[in-house]
Amino acid sequence: MLHKTLACVLIAILPIVSFADDCRSGNFPVKIARITSSPVKPGQETCVTFVATNSNTITGGQVKITVDRDGSSNAVYDKSHNMCTEFGVSCPITAGEHSLTKCVNVPYEATGKFKLVTNTSKTSTENLTKKLQKMGFNVSRDDIITSLAATRMLVEKDNLKPFLILEPKATEEFDNISVDASRPYDAVVVGLAPSCFHYDKLNEAFRILKNAQAAQRNVQLIAIHRGRYFQDTDDDLSMGPGGFVAALEYAAGVQAKIVGKPNKTFFETAINALPSTTSTSTTTTAAATATESTTIVIGDDVESDLGPETDGLPIERFLVKTGKYRAGDEDRAFKTMDGVFADFAHTVPQILKRYGVI
Ligand SMILES: *[C@@H]1O[C@H](CO)[C@@H](O)[C@H](O)[C@H]1NC(C)=O
Ligand SMILES: *[C@@H]1O[C@H](CO)[C@@H](O)[C@H](O)[C@H]1NC(C)=O
Ligand SMILES: *[C@@H]1O[C@H](CO)[C@@H](O)[C@H](O)[C@H]1NC(C)=O
Ligand SMILES: *[C@@H]1O[C@H](CO)[C@@H](O)[C@H](O)[C@H]1NC(C)=O
Ligand SMILES: CC(=O)N[C@H]1CO[C@H](CO)[C@@H](O)[C@@H]1O
């Protein structure tokens, strides 16, 4: 169901773990002799062989195994293990040199950061967050960047009084904007609003645009996005706001601003909202641990998510064949996609493999 609500996801991949030797103690100096995989691969068993030399008999104890993420002290595995039962030796361990082997499974953990980028204009960010949480996604309001929120920012920045062609749930996003009630409208905001796309409402918007022009007042036509069509709940395509925006442009002789996808500014907002992944270390050896990151856009729309407007952005483009995807869409792409996958569930493991995370 994810693809129906959110057509696009950004993921930044961080480099992966290395093994840290944190296993020394006074009377039982231990050193790592062999690791079956280095760097350690999350989700796979990794066996570590230690060589220990003890001068006295040892009756018991714990060996702590810690796996750190490269360049950070943030442990991805940190557990103590019983020396007598878990290492293939039995206690007491007599004086001398011993080889101890322990296999551990470092849990896979997403090292990527993501933002859900949606051009939804049907529901407020608050409501969308709740909807996703109900579906079981652990997301917070800050993980979601909607074109509706971006439109609000634009309205506030330009201090506009907007006439909204939006579904009631979406108008919530504009609730608290302080505008002088006596001021005439100086903007028309259009989102996906099936219940508003009728002659009377569109004509009201048209008159606002036209009368402002006649009075030589500035007026803006703002499209939350310009989607031609979308995948509807009955699995068929339905008309998006694009055609209605075009109708107002044509009738009033104005050019709409497009805030959501595919506006480059919108993608940039999302990319900039990803946590910075560059090393902040100030030591002179920082180069050795400096982290690299890759930003990936996953989308089902070869034009709006992955289209020419995204050219020049530091991203890789992955198309998923779900939602509004139709056979042959990849042939219309403005450049060869970095990957085309059956669905989101197949995309993520492929990406993680490609970047050596798993
Ligand atoms: C969305 O907001 C409205 C109004 O605040 C509320 O009635 C509705 O239950 C909310 N929907 C969800 C899915 O949270
Ligand atoms: C949800 O995400 C937050 C922040 O990433 C994390 O601290 C928390 O443990 C997660 N909760 C669950 C149930 O995964
Ligand atoms: C409206 O303002 C109140 C108080 O400033 C705030 O708590 C609330 O989240 C705002 N609502 C929206 C939709 O921004
Ligand atoms: C892109 O969005 C910004 C606001 O986020 C807006 O100022 C700009 O006009 C939009 N660009 C186009 C081509 O509509
Ligand atoms: C509501 C709506 O039109 N959503 C569309 C937003 O854009 C994505 C991709 O561009 C579409 O898949 C959605 O249907």
TrEMBL record:
The UniProt record lists the keyword Signal: yes
Signal peptide residues on this chain, from the entry's feature table: 1-20
Keywords for this protein: Cytoplasm, Hydrolase, Magnesium, Metal-binding, Nucleus, Signal
Pfam families, A to Z: E1_DerP2_DerF2, Hydrolase_6, Hydrolase_like
Subcellular location: Cytoplasm; Nucleus
Chain ranges of the MD-2-related lipid-recognition domain: 21-111
Required cofactor(s): Mg(2+)
NCBIfam families hit by this protein: HAD-SF-IIA-hyp3 (TIGR01458)
Protein name per its UniProtKB record: Haloacid dehalogenase-like hydrolase domain-containing protein 2
